[in-house]
Amino acid sequence: MNITPPPEKRPMWQTSFHFFTLILILVFANWGAPTDGDTYSVWYHIWANKWLITAGFSVMLMYSLIFILKIKWQWVIGAALVTASSALISFEYVENLKLAPLVPMLVGIAALSFITLFDKQDEDNKAWTLSAWDFAKQIMPLLAVGVITAGFLLGSTHDGVSIAGVIPNEWISSLVGGNSIFSNLFASVVGAFMYFATLTEVPILQGLINAGMGKGPALALLLAGPSLSLPNMLVIRNVMGTQKTIVYIVLVIIMATAAGLIYGGLF
Predict the structure, then answer these.
(1) Distance of CA 151 to the CA centre of its chain
(2) Facing residues of 163 across strands?
(3) What is the pTM of this model?
(4) Dist. CA 218–CA 210, nearest whole Å
């Protein structure tokens, strides 16, 4: 039986270009500050110029919106001008430099949502925004719960002031502090058996780092956590069998431990 696949709406390179442009904007807009005293490394220069880099990728997004998603160029230019104006006003009148970038980011998201929701030339643009909104409604409650739980159990750090949590920091430091084989292995095993809801591993990991967790074990936990969980193991065992499941679990733990050791040794 011959099955004719439906014709592609657009070439793969166009879809990839649009997708990776959005990812790069997200990555550089959230680029964290380097360690204290670091004013010469590549990471510092990226952080110091992250908004210029983000603006450059935003220009690429404008190209994608006009020539790939086929949104009216007048709408795209108008949204860009509104976002740029909000950035100038924000950095002029918002005294807190940490909060100032939030204004143009929120305005940019709102402008992008507006021009895609009301676009009449391609229904996929509206469907994309509605799907993103549905996904955000699923994620935000879980993320909020994760932030509150991590702060309560592990504490937090704000503007250089540490707030202790219920779990003593000494416990965290003794188990997953530094970059030893034990700390990375322990983090990998815990991550493999622990169930992380979507994105809750981010605030939990941040709380653990503030409590004394090393960079290597943090990466080991972050790698093993999404790959495995106790419910995941039970499902895999029913499909693959006990021996293959054990091999898969051991490989994940070993690879996560090795990656943590390498990362902790380098950074």
Answers:
(1) 19
(2) 156
(3) 0.69
(4) 11
**pLDDT per residue as tens digits for the range 110-145:** 999 999 999 988 888 999 899 989 988 877 787 777
State the pLDDT confidence band at 204, using cuts at 50, 70 and 90. Answer: confident
Nearest to 30 by CA among 12, 13, 53: 53
Q: Cα–Cα distance between 158 and 236 in angstroms, integer?
A: 41
Structure letter (DSSP) for residue 32: P
pLDDT tens for each residue of 136-181: 887 778 777 767 776 777 766 666 666 767 778 888 888 898 899 9
Cα–Cα separations (whole angstroms), residue 133 to 113, 141, 200: 9, 13, 18
Q: Encoding tokens for residue 33?
A: 């500050």
What pLDDT shows up at residue 107? 94
Q: Which pair of tokens denotes residue 138?
A: 């699923």
DSSP codes joined into one string, 200-236: THHHHHHHHHHTT--HHHHHHHHHHHHH--HHHHHHH
Q: Which tokens hold the place of 166?
A: 């219920």
33 phi and psi angles, rounded to 5 deg:
-70, 145
Q: Are 103 and 96 in contact (CB under 8 A)?
A: no
The whole-angstrom separation of Cα 41 and Cα 45 is 7
Looking at the chain, how many residues does it have?
267
Cα pseudo-dihedral 172, 173, 179, 184, rounded to 10: -20
Distance CA 156, CA 210 (A): 6
pLDDT higher than 60, residue 234: yes
CA 225 distance to own-chain centroid: 15
